[in-house]
Specification:
heterodimer; A: two-stranded antiparallel ribbon; two-stranded antiparallel sheet; 4 strands; B: mainly alpha; 16 helices; about 65% helix; globular
Chain lengths: ~575, ~400
């Protein structure tokens, strides 16, 4: 058996013996299967049995040791291990047990085997399987689809066992806070490791975050802005309804594209979607698709559909209600996701959906439903507002410096003011109260615009455009109620600012997407490991290794059990047994 | 040199036992007293303010039955069906509530008189202090449902004053402590039972509004509302310094439903109509109800053994049903009527089940060991890990 050491992948630690004092880190590539029975920290059997080849048969081996990030790496094997196996099983076993000999073997045998052939189809298959833990049903769906398509799939590969705990694991909020940092919890802390290869570009679907729905939010709110502008500004600027129509069509198209891509991600990489759901900041973006649909319904041009049916409102609000029950309930009672710890400006997305739904319902003519969502939104908005203003010391997700996420503060009051005005029929004192709060927050952030520089562009920035548009729409509504020169100028100014920002962001997005090609970087935030790497690349002296000579002796005499020490978290070094068949 | 110290003679005590004949009358008197003491003292020592949950629920149920059995003139068909409720059932329930409330009140007065240190312990406990409002709330609710007292009489007024003054005194004491006194800071002592003080204010406001005393009603309502908002925000934040609720007391979380509903009813009484604000408060309460019933796992651990805390399920549901009845009266839609029917049925069912359970388990309703009663002294290891506090420096 040959343990291949890929020099270009940093996470594979070369296998050396104890005397060299390095960790036995093993990285597996499927295709060749070297299976070892491991007893994890829980004491249960993790892997499957090892099949060591005889001299005639080619067998494959795979190791899966999932209990720690190091454990989550798999044994790296060359695909053409059969040839090596055929030579001398006993000798190869020795290779498997102690590290020094493996390396020696490697160097002695075939130096050229250090580099793997690039175009090997077996290699491609092995490479794909690194993402298996993130695929839906660990890649079985894909295999079935490939079989359906008639593509020949290597059948003699053993079933790749995904690490059990990754599939069913629910990562706690603490894990995300420990592993990630940054205003959007995007950057990995230096001490942490991720489960997927850092150097490779992951499959597109894995890199596609839910924050892409922010683009739909930004563009569809623009459609609403120009619809309101064309109806309210008739006396001083004439804006045709065609602008609204074009923008609305673009929004529909954009939403269809984004939604279908994300749907593909849900179908093929459900595990990644689940991890996004557990991410303290990304969870709020799960409201974004439904809010975008609500915006589309609000901004629908008159000639497409004058009066939307009532059932549409119920259909659109049901997912928001379910998500809310889950997330607000977590704030109130759910374990570690307490608001004093996880509150961050992105939580506004979970609250603003209520107000947008109330606005749509009231404009459709519904009475009680909009008030329900307005009440719920108002109560939870108060809680969130107070918590964010407090900037509690226990809060771990607040950005230390100003970041575009702060513009979300403006969103909720401006939409609430419009909703209240629609429910009551006129822009009365309650609506004005909310509107002035929104205006104050907007100016408070606008005078600090210098502090918003210096942030790396990310897709999530799109979510921050719709508050500016929302404030502009509310100002237009206010100026139609209180028509004087100040309000008119203000509405014009805010509308222009919003449009310019959206256009600028659109251009930046296109540049990043097609020219720089870094619009979708590797999504580190969802690939964090389940447990802290306790090993932390420390070296352990293990007395168990002293007994490896005995083990070797036993093996060469035909015994079945081999013990290889392995690092597992919390227990330091722990031997696990390989069952030799 | 040795000195022989002469030991003084040891003092001698002479005991003379005289047998006296004990009169038979004194014998029975002292025996009866002993028997009475042996019977009642254990009950009094164990009967803490948390037992008023029973009376809260019964009085609330009485109010619900009274409201439902007298539908107004322009009521919907469903409401009129409920009006066919037999009034004898209502009278029976009223009498039962009065009996139990009187008994418990007497027992608690005796407890204050004989074991004032226990009452003091309750007052100092951050959960127990809120249940000091419960007797007054129960009496106010019973007053509102009294079949022979109309709100405009002088007796009603006197009784109202009698019951609201202690509530107001407790308000001043407890709310004042929150923002002035050093040790009992709200961020550490806030727990779902704190909403009971707000409920007390709202009940007082509703009773006042029914009497026609709109200004006093507004005072009580405002005080209750402001402090309810503070408590609401604090509870939602679940600050890390906050002591957690013991597992046994998870049913107390149903108070999240009770407070907005009661506020909605109070505002309805003050304004005369079920307007926008009342509707919003009712909807908030309904959302809390949905939020809690979709989380059965939260209450799993507290339902293992019957406990008086189970009565904490009943009165929030009853208050919600009352608010839904007012809501259905204001909006004539069939969805509202259906909601009213469902919520009323649920609350009646829960109350009846609890009454039966309590009747069957009278021996366990007063636990033998007082020391481990969590409502008096919640211990840290009784804390549910799912709502445990986190070490902020981690």
């Amino acid at each position: 058996m040959k343990m291949e050491n890929r020099k270009d992948s940093p996470e594979v630690v070369p296998i050396r013996s104890v005397d060299c004092d390095q960790i036995l880190g093993v990285k597996k590539q499927s295709g060749s299967s070297f299976q070892m029975t491991t007893t994890g920290p829980n004491g249960n059997d993790l892997g499957t049995s090892i099949d060591l080849p005889d001299q005639n048969t080619t067998q494959s081996v795979s190791i899966s040791i999932p209990q720690s990030p190091l454990d989550a790496k798999r044994v790296l094997f060359k695909d053409n291990t059969e040839a090596v196996w055929k030579d001398s099983p006993a000798r190869n076993l020795k290779l498997g047990v102690t590290g020094c000999e493996i390396d020696e073997m490697g160097s002695e045998k075939t130096p050229e085997r250090q580099t793997l052939p690039v175009k090997n189809p077996r290699m491609d298959a092995m490479k794909d399987n690194r993402y298996n833990s993130f695929k839906t049903w660990s890649g079985r769906l894909e295999r079935q689809l490939s079989v359906l398509r008639g593509k020949s799939f290597p059948r003699n590969d053993p079933e790749i066992n995904p690490p059990q705990n990754i599939q069913g694991e629910s990562l706690s909020a603490d894990r995300y806070f420990d592993a990630l940092e940054g205003p959007e919890l995007e950057t990995l802390r230096p001490s942490e490791e991720i489960m997927l290869p850092e150097d490779k570009k992951w499959p597109f679907l894995l890199r596609y975050p839910i924050s892409s729905f922010g683009i739909c939010l930004g563009v569809s709110s623009q459609a609403i802005l120009w619809k309101n502008a064309s109806t309210s500004w008739t006396h001083f600027i004439h804006i045709s309804l065609k602008v609204n129509y074009i923008l609305w069509c673009i929004s529909i198209l954009l939403f269809a594209v984004v939604a279908s891509t994300y749907l593909l991600k849900v179908i093929f990489y459900f595990e990644a979607v689940r991890r996004e759901y557990y991410h303290p900041i990304r969870v709020n973006f799960f409201f974004a698709p439904w809010i975008a649909l609500l915006f589309l319904a609000i901004g629908v041009p008159e000639d497409v559909h004058a009066n939307l049916p009532h059932w549409l409102w119920y259909v659109l609000m049901t997912p928001i209600l379910c998500l809310e029950l889950k997330i607000y309930g977590q704030w109130m009672s759910g374990g570690q996701r307490r608001l004093s710890k996880v509150a961050n400006p992105s939580n506004h997305l979970s609250v603003v959906g209520n107000f947008v739904g109330a606005l749509l319902g009231a404009s459709m003519g519904l009475k009680e439903g909009p008030i329900f969502f307005f009440a719920v939104g108002l109560a939870h908005y108060t809680v969130l507002f107070v918590t964010l203003y407090q900037r509690l010391p226990t809060n771990e997700t607040l950005p230390k410096e100003l970041h575009p996420v702060f513009f979300l503060f403006v969103a909720a009051p401006s939409v609430a003011s419009m909703a209240w005005a629609k429910i009551n029929g006129s822009f009365d004192y309650g609506a004005r109260l909310a509107y002035f709060i929104a205006l104050f927050l907007y100016f408070s952030l606008a005078v600090r615009v210098n502090f918003f520089r210096g942030f790396k562009f990310s897709l999530a920035w799109w979510a921050y455009t719709f508050p500016m548009t929302g404030a502009a729409i509310a100002t237009i509504r206010y100026s139609s109620e209180v028509p004087n020169i100040v309000t008119k100028v203000l509405s014009l100014a805010l509308a222009t600012t919003a449009t310019v920002t959206v256009t600028g962001l659109l251009i930046t997005t296109i540049i990043h997407a097609f020219v720089l090609r870094d619009l979708f970087p590797n999504d580190i935030g969802i690939a964090i490991s389940g447990q802290k790497p306790k090993a932390q690349r420390k070296w352990y002296r293990r007395n168990t290794c002293g007994s490896t000579k005995d083990i070797m002796h036993r093996v060469s005499s035909g015994e079945k059990i081999v013990e290889v020490p392995v690092i597992s978290p919390g227990l330091g070094v722990k031997p696990f047994s390989m069952q030799v068949l | 040199m040795t000195t022989n110290v002469k030991q003084p003679p040891l003092p001698q005590i002479e005991l003379t036992v005289t047998s006296t004949s004990i009169h038979s009358n004194d014998h029975t008197a002292t025996d009866t007293l002993t028997i009475i003491k042996a019977l009642f003292i254990p009950i009094i020592t164990r009967c803490h303010a948390g037992y008023f949950r029973i009376t809260l629920s019964l009085c609330c149920q009485t109010l619900l039955w009274k409201t439902l059995k007298d539908p107004p003139e322009n009521a919907h068909a469903y409401r009129r069906i409920l009006g066919l409720f037999p009034s004898t059932a209502f009278l029976l329930l009223w009498s039962l509530s009065l009996l139990i409330l009187t008994t418990l009140s007497i027992l608690y007065i005796l407890r204050c008189a004989l074991f004032s240190n226990m009452v003091k312990t309750e007052y100092l406990n951050h959960i127990g202090v809120n249940y000091l409002f419960a007797p007054w709330i129960s009496w106010l609710l019973l007053l509102q449902t009294a079949p022979f007292l109309t709100p405009k009489t002088i007796y009603y007024l006197l009784l109202w004053c009698l019951f609201v003054v202690p509530i107001f005194v407790l308000d001043v004491k407890i709310y004042g402590q929150w923002f002035t006194k050093g040790k009992r800071i709200l961020s550490t002592v806030a727990n779902p039972a704190s909403q009971l003080s707000a409920v007390g204010n709202f009940v007082g406001a509703q009773a006042a509004a029914q009497m026609g005393w709109k200004e006093s009603a507004m005072v009580l309502f405002t005080v209750g509302m402001v402090h309810y908002m503070v408590v609401f925000v604090t509870l939602y934040q679940r600050l890390s310094g906050n002591t957690c609720l013991p597992t046994m007391l998870t049913p107390v979380m149903f108070l999240f439903i009770a407070a907005p509903s009661m506020a909605s009813l109070a505002w309805d009484s003050i304004c005369g109509t079920f307007d926008f604000s009342s509707k919003m408060l009712f909807y908030l309460s309904f959302f809390m109800f949905l939020s809690l019933v979709t989380r059965p796992n939260l209450f799993k651990n507290s339902m293992k053994k019957f406990n008086v805390v189970w009565w904490a399920y009943s009165y929030p549901l009853t208050v919600l049903a009352l608010a839904s009845a007012e809501y259905a009266q204001a909006t004539k839609s069939s969805f509202a009527q259906l909601l009213m029917l469902l919520l009323s049925a649920l609350s009646v069912m829960v109350s009846i089940v609890l009454m039966v359970y309590t009747a069957l388990n009278t021996n366990t309703i007063l636990p033998p060991d007082d020391a481990c009663d969590p409502t008096i002294m919640p211990s840290d290891d009784a804390c549910d890990p799912t709502i445990a506090t986190l070490d902020p420096i981690s």
